[in-house]
Amino acid sequence: MSANTIAINQQMHPLEPHEQVWLFGYGSLIYKADFPFIESRPASIRGWSRRFWQGSHDHRGTPETPGRVATLVEEEGARCGGLAYLISADVFEHLDYREKNGYLRLTTEMTFRDGSCVQGLVYIATQDNAAYLGPASTEDIARQIAQSHGPSGSNMDYLLHLADALRLLEEDDPHVFAIERLLMDMEPVLGHS
Length: 193
Ligand code: SIN
Fold this sequence. Notes:
The chain is α+β, with helices and mostly antiparallel strands.
């Protein structure tokens, strides 16, 4: 599959412009809401784990030196915590552009903290997209993140902002926090303040 998913997403989920849709965010969408939304609520989805297995050619890296950003991978019994946004369908024009580097809009059920559930959408970069990088050791992921920069800023900022946002949501994520610890240890070596 081409790394640019804009056309696929528009064909897969044609929406009426003023329809309201719940979107589950688990990566940069948690901490960078550069779009209008009607409401946001902490939520989780089942059967998926957050992993830094997607390459970023357009935000936190380049095609030559991709960064590593979050996607979801299927895992039985797993739970992924994040933030759900109720948005008007016309906002997907902006979001499809932002998430175009491999992310497909898939339908999902999400659960709010009061136990109620809704159907909505989530952007997932599946392993058949051209920018997919797949698993690597935590150390290798941290090293790649430490070295990558793209038009939206450093890959390290993406990881550190996400870790902070997850703490604010009181969500544990051993994968994210393990990478964060390694990055913090590297910081003096890399000269970040
Ligand atoms: C998301 O945040 O839900 C999608 C992945 C990303 O943009 O980081």
